[in-house]
C-alpha cells in the first residue's frame, strides 16, 4: 500500500505515557519561574509577619501622644525620640556610651562562657565534684546579682572591674546550670552504645557528651546574653561616667525625656541583634540536628 508524500503519519501515544513537560529530567521554562515567584512571596510574607507587630507598636507610640491619649511630656512621639537619637549619634554621645557598655558587657559575658561551660561539664559529669560544689552553688545561685552590686563596688571600686565582675556573676549562672542539666540529661542509650565501643573518656566527651549537650548549653548562653545587657545597664546607673545606663539616668535627671527613650531603644536594638547572633551560632553548631530532607 503506497502513501502520498504529503500525508502526515502520526504515531499514537503509548498508553500511560506522560506529556513531555511532566517527564522527569525534562526542564521547562515556567516551572522554575513559578518556584522563584512562590519563594519570593513566601519571603515577603515572612518579613511582613515579623515586622507587622513592631510597626503597629511604633504607630501606636507615635499617635497616642499626638491624640492626647498619654501625656507627651512623659511619652513623646516616636518621631521626637528618633530625632533625639540622631542628635546623640551626630554629637558622638551615643557611640561613646554604646562602646563603653558593649565593652563591659561582652567582657563579662565572654568570661562567663569561658568559666561556666567547662565548670558545668565538670560538675555534670563527675559526681564527687557536684557533691563538693553543690552547697555553694545553691547558696549563690539564689542571690540576685543586683543585690550584690554594693559589695562589688565596695571591694572592687566604681571602675570597670566592678561592672565587668557583676556582669560575669550574673551571666555565669544560666550558662553553668544549663550546662550541668545538659550533661546529666544525655540519652543513656547513647552512653551505653558509646561504652560498648570501648571509647575512652576523652573520646566519649568529644563524640557523645558535647554534641548532645550543645543545644541546652546554647539555651543558657542566650539567656546569659540577655542578662549581660540588663544587669550592666542597672550597674551603670550607680557610679558610672559612661555607658547607656549612665545616659538614661543622666537624661532622666536632666528631664531630657526623648534622649532617655533613645537610650532605651538603643539597648533594645542591641539586645535583639545580640540574640540573633547567638541564634545564628547555635544553628551553626547544631546543624547536625537538622533533618536530612531539610
Describe, in plain words, how this protein is organized in 3D.
With 294 residues, the protein is mainly α. Helix content is 73%, strand content 0%. It is built from ten helices and no strands. The longest helix has 37 residues, at 30-66. The chain starts with 29 loop residues before the first helix and ends in a 9-residue tail after the last helix.
Gyration radius, to the nearest Å? 30 Å
Sequence of secondary-structure elements:
HHHHHHHHHH
Uncertain segments: 1-10, 290-294
**Per DSSP, what share of the residues sits in E-state strands of 2 or more residues?**
under 5%
Count of discrete alpha- or pi-helical segments spanning 4 or more residues: 10
Largest sheet: none
In total, how many beta strands? 0
What is the mean pLDDT?
82
Cα shape: flat
